[in-house]
C-alpha cells in the first residue's frame, strides 16, 4: 500500500510524493517519501490505474494534467489560476474540476492513454455573495457526482450547493440549496442511503446536515454543528470532510484549531461529537484513509508534516501512531495500492 501526497510548490516541494505504508497495528509507519511526479502546485489529484490526473499551476498558467509513471502525457492549461478540486468517475472516464478563482466548473473526458478533452463548462456568476471578506466573488470549491448520477458543486462565495445534469455533453442547472450567510460552503459527503448530505462551512467552522430528495429536489435543513470548541477565539477554517462507508461517522479537518473533529451519526442522521484529535502540525487541509478505513493520514500544509492514525471502526476514534512525517506543503492525501 502507498500514500500519495501533493500540494503547493512555493517552497521546498517538487510535486507529488509517494510514501510506502509498512507494517500493521501499532507497528504501522510510512517510509520516507520520494517525488514521483514533478509538477507545479498539485493541490488536488486523482489516480486511475497508472494515470495520475492532477491540478497544475506553473508560470502564471493553471489547469489539469495527466501523468503516467511520472511523465506528462496530456494537459489542459490556460492563463491564470488553476482549479481547486478534481473529482473522477473511472467507469465513465470523466473528470470534474472546480476553479475557486475563476468560478468555472468543468467536465473533462480522458481515454486509455490519458488524453484529456474538455466537454463542457459553466461559470458561477456573482448572484448572492456572502457577507464575509473572503466572499468577494463566486468561489466554487468542489464539483463531483451525487448518488443519483447528477453533479454537485459547493460555492464558498455564495454559501450555496448547486446541482447539475450532464447529458449529451452539456451541463444544465437543476436545483440549489442555500446555506446560511457566511457559512462558506466548501465540501460535502453523501450518506449511504443517498437521502442526506453533510456539508462543511469553511468560514463558519460548521457541518450542516441536509435531507434531500434527488427526484423532487426538495431540501430539509436538519441541524448544524460546530467543528471547533465553543471557547475557540482564533482563526479557523474547516476543510476536508469524509464519511465512513458504513455511514456511522463523519470526520472534518480544522485549519487553525489544527485538529480532526470526529462525529457519530445517530439514527436520525443528526451528529454527536465524540472526539477532537490534534493533527500535530499546522493547517491540515486534507486527510484520507485506506480502503479498509483502518488507517488515516492527515497532512499539515504549514508545518510540512503529516500524522498517521489508527482508526477504530467500532467507535470511530482516531489514535495517533506516527507524528512528524516529513511532507513538504501537503494539501491532498490519497491512499493507493
From TrEMBL:
Natural source organism: Lactobacillus porci
Record-level Gene Ontology MF annotations: 6-phosphogluconolactonase activity
One Gene Ontology cellular component: cytosol
Family annotation (InterPro entries): Cycloisomerase_2, Haem_d1_sf, Lactonase_7-beta_prop, WD40/YVTN_repeat-like_dom_sf
Pfam family, one: Lactonase
Superkingdom assignment: Bacteria
Protein name listed in UniProt: Lactonase family protein
Family (UniProt): Belongs to the cycloisomerase 2 family.
